[in-house]
């Protein structure tokens, strides 16, 4: 009985909204798990930077669509994208700070 794991279809149970159906933004649903077949650090890091750049540009693109009268986008989508961008910037700032601190600690090691 200790090896029993329930099989839930979590991805199938998620309700899809207008926000998860396009706008050239990466999905924020369960299917965004990093694939293990990425080979090197450069590809992973460049992918993270590209996703970060897309997150930064998403609110502007959505706001342009709202202002042009696109019926598929409303102001709530813009606000959600802005919140997601704010969180992404905070995470990136924290990560850069941690990398700089780690570099400083490595440089202080006496060889």
- What is the total domain count? 1
Q: Total strand count, please?
A: 0
Label the overall shape.
extended
Low-pLDDT stretches: none
What sequence of helices (H) and strands (E) makes up the elements? HHH
Specify the helix fraction band.
55-70%
Separate helix tally? 3
Largest sheet entry? none
Rounded mean pLDDT is 77
Q: Round the Cα radius of gyration to an integer and report it.
A: 19 Å
Structural class: mainly alpha
Determine the strand fraction and express it as a percent band: under 5%
Span between termini? 52 Å
Structure commentary:
It is built from three helices and no strands. It has one domain. The chain is 58% helix and 0% strand.
Chart the SSEs and their pairings:
Elements lengths: L9 H4 L27 H27 L7 H33 L4
Helix pairs in contact: 2-3
Structure described in brief:
The protein is an all-alpha fold.
Features:
111 residues, mainly alpha, 3 helices, 0% strand, extended
């Amino acid at each position: 009985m200790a090896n029993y794991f329930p099989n839930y279809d979590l991805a199938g149970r998620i309700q899809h909204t207008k926000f998860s159906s396009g706008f050239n933004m990466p999905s924020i649903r369960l299917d965004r798990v990093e694939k293990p077949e990425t080979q090197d650090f450069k590809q992973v890091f460049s992918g993270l930077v590209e996703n970060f750049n897309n997150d930064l540009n998403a609110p502007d693109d959505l706001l342009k669509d709202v202002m042009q009268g696109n019926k598929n986008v409303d102001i709530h989508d813009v606000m959600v994208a802005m919140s997601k961008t704010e969180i992404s910037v905070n995470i990136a700032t924290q990560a850069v700070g941690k990398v700089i601190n780690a570099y400083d600690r490595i440089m202080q090691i006496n060889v």
